[in-house]
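SAMPLE LOG
Freezer: B-3
Tube label: C17
Construct: single chain, 423 aa
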Amino acid sequence: MSTSSSEEVGGGEGPSRRRRMSMWPEPFVEALAFRVAIDADGRLAAAHALFNIFQVCSTWRAISRSELLWQNLTRHIWNTWHLRHNTWREEYIYRHRTFNNFRRGRYMLTTLPFNIPSDNGLSCRRLVLSDHHLAAGFSDGAVRLFYLPTGLHLSTFYPQHRDRLGRFSSSVSGIILSDVRLVFATLDGDIHATIINGQMLLRRAHIGNVVNDGALVDFTGSNRWWVGLYAGVPGRAFHIWNGETEELVFVGGTLTDAEALMGWHLLTEITDLIGRVRVTSYENAIACTSSRVIVFDLQDQGVVLHEEEFVRGVIVGCFDCNDEAALITDRRGAASLRRLVSLEEVCRFRVRGGRVLGCVNSGYGVIITAEGVIRVWEIEGGDYLYHFRERMGECNAIVCDDRYVAAVASSTGIIHLWDFGAQ
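STRUCTURE (predicted):
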């Protein structure tokens, strides 16, 4: 029997088999490539799976030029829906390389041009990232905006003056940031907004009422929703606004009822974090206090989808989420990634070092200890990867996305920025 016949009978990769495969319709081959990439063992493995598909024959290699294929792959593997490069293929390659840089600890470190005098009591309370900007919110109500590609300080915004109830009532409690709009809230419940890249005129979008609502302890959102977490008045834990019309659409919830007194203390003194709230791109939000975590629906007026008590407590500063799962760390240093909405455990890893702050992006958990050691875990399986070489000392805030990690040192107020972006 000839070699070619043997390969044909045995299903080998001979010329006859390749000729038959080259006759497969292009839409079928494209769908096959998409499925093989999606089913690969992890997002980084998808590229190798695609490489194998493209090597089958010239016809199969031709689908590597399909923009529709790369668009679908980028959306499903990297959860990226907006094109930021010239083509979707370039977008996919950039996302792959940046994700790989994050895994291997390849970064460039810079510091942003601002530091806090050590004797004025000012502290950074919030850090938020968008594609091209970073915003830092401070205890005096100021929000400083930086342009990431150059590191330049663009502007500083201060809340409009009015009578305040307590020394820290104007302290920034949350920021919503895109490359178009900046929205921030203060503990007294005031919300201010401005358009980026215009004249950047700040306006007050909402006037808070501390007596009726309590302190606004955390604030977050998206283009569609703004969500505030309050403490101080029972039964009014959550406020939800339509982010497009700025209309208040829901008030209610009991998550912070047990922390009501602590909410009032925030207005006059710096205390431990009371609670955090995060919004996903799937119209849900997840919030925590030191003992409870709840997931609720934003479209359906705050309906609770899942709730869980944590006997070992929750470290509020080490609570965060991406679109798929939440990072929850108990007081004994056990960190777990919980699937949204069910809070089913995906993986677990051990956090060392007393007081910790943490955040997650789409693939990694980043946690900083009180000594300023920043460690990185892979959150699909909970594997520890590495720690940053730089030590900052104690930090007030940390944030990350798929490209950047930013943290601010408590003693100096200097913002350190680690850039993992593909160069």
